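hey
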């Protein structure tokens, strides 16, 4: 299981249940135990006629949660540990078990932080700006086929800027080499530019735990 305390598997939501970031298990437990700023979200799932949870071959619940309930610290530590829950030990000698929280709700924070892009754009940032679309063909890219093209080649003075970087297929990028688009017979579907500030929720796409799925949009397959 590794050091679960340091795992980034806790999604943070604002008061309106919109994703605003994520944290380690350890940080989430501290926030939850403080009692003033956050509650953990408890997820319940369907059971069979025998009252047992319906699990897949990996031991995870099948289907979406049938109930999501905000729980405070005093109640959270009394919840029973289910077969699919990750746990931490607590108590004076670590003799007690507690479910690991995976989604935390801020009780008093209702704003949506905005992400402003500065500096050299990352490959992930270009992917998000271009919505995973090849900027030469207009086709949706698979993650494994995605790469970044310098519109004006680096060998000809092209820089790592928003206006000079676009998403494209690895094959197209390889065939283009250090040519100009006019030399390679390529035409952009739109001119690249720096994106405006966007809600931080749009940046959170990777599902680090199954319980995150109901809160994330534009999840990449």
């Amino acid at each position: 299981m590794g050091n679960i305390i340091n795992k980034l598997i806790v999604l943070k939501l604002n008061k309106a249940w919109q994703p605003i970031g994520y944290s380690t298990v350890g940080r989430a437990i501290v926030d939850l135990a403080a009692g003033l700023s956050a509650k953990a979200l408890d997820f319940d799932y369907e059971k069979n006629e025998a009252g047992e949870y319906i699990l897949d071959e990996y031991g995870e619940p099948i289907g979406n949660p049938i109930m999501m309930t905000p729980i405070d610290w005093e109640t959270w530590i009394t919840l029973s540990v289910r077969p699919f829950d990750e746990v931490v030990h607590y108590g004076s000698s670590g003799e007690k078990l507690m479910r690991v929280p995976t989604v935390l709700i801020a009780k008093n924070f209702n704003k949506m932080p905005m992400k402003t892009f500065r500096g050299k754009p990352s490959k992930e940032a270009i992917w998000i700006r271009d919505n995973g679309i090849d900027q030469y063909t207009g086709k949706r890219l698979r993650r494994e086929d995605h790469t970044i093209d310098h519109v004006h080649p680096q060998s000809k003075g092209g820089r790592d800027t928003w206006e000079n970087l676009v998403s494209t297929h690895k094959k197209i990028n390889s065939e283009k080499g250090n040519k100009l688009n006019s030399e390679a017979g390529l035409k952009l579907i739109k001119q690249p530019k720096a994106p405006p500030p966007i809600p931080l929720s749009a940046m959170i796409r990777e599902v680090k735990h199954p319980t995150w799925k109901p809160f994330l949009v534009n999840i990449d397959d």
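The two ends are 25 Å apart (CA to CA). The chain has a mean pLDDT of 90.
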